[in-house]
Design goal:
By secondary structure, the protein is of the alpha+beta class. It is built from 1 helix and 4 strands. The protein is globular.
Amino acid sequence: MTESSTPYISAARVTVLAVQPGNPPFRLVEVDGEFIGRASSMTDVLLVAAEAGVTVHDLDDPEAVHWVGGGKFTWSVH
């Protein structure tokens, strides 16, 4: 197996999962693979991560945050 055929594993400590239906819709947030909270906005992601001891300076940095099922502007179910 060559290096280029190996799967990419995110180095980001924070993972924001796909939007879940709710009122309001929300996304689950994990730090180091462990569920830490729910977010309904980008600000919530920052707050939940900070409560877990992780400071995020740039939501666009793939080394800081891994977005699953849409980026930082995706907050509604498609």
